[in-house]
Design a protein that fits this description.
about 180 residues; two-stranded antiparallel ribbon; 2 strands; about 80% helix; globular
Length: about 180
């Protein structure tokens, strides 16, 4: 079995298990529920990545990659919502002040996927005989990935701000949570 397949399904199992554990045991706060949704989306994205690696035909690979891009388009909004609600006592006010940014994080990637679904991946090829498959992204696909990267940077900036404001045990918890999300 290919290492990419093992890695994809292992990360899906771990992300899904974390989502289930937090959904089952943790209190039902906005931050915890957004964490559960974020981890569940990461699990779905990893499963779709694994299904892409198990596909044999290029058309089948593009099919699974399109579904993966759809799951990925929800990630910036969910993780931004989490980063804005985690660690703040007045998270409702904090989120209300940044609702425009949240709207952009949720709507732009999803609309980009819906409007340009057929232009996200424009080519599929194999790097070498028996090597990895390479997907050529169109301009909408590149923009979706850049938007995802910018969203990840904004999320980490918010979590870093939360980390700097925390003290004691909470600071250690936030540090390990940030390290886990970065990986």
């Amino acid at each position: 079995m290919n290492n990419a397949i093992i890695f994809a399904f292992t990360s899906a199992v771990v992300s899904g298990a974390l989502a289930l554990v937090f959904a089952w045991y943790e209190r039902r706060s906005v931050a915890h529920l957004s964490f559960v949704f974020g981890m569940a989306l990461l699990a779905v994205e990893s499963v779709l990545n694994g299904l892409t690696a198990t596909a044999t035909l290029p058309e089948e690979m593009v099919y699974w990659q399109n579904w993966r891009l759809l799951a990925m388009s929800f990630l910036p909004g969910v993780w931004l919502f989490f980063s804005l609600s985690y660690g703040y006592g007045n998270h409702r006010e904090f989120i209300a002040r940044r609702r425009f940014l949240l709207g952009i994080a949720f709507l732009v990637p999803v609309l980009l996927f819906i409007l340009f679904r057929n232009a996200l991946i424009i080519s599929v090829g194999q790097a070498a005989q028996g090597g990895h498959w390479v997907f050529g992204l169109g301009n909408p696909g590149i923009f979706l990935n850049v938007f995802f990267l910018i969203g990840a940077v904004v999320v980490l900036m918010n979590l870093e701000r939360t980390y700097r404001a925390a003290v004691g045990t909470m600071r250690w918890r936030i540090k390990f949570m940030i390290l886990g999300l970065v990986e």
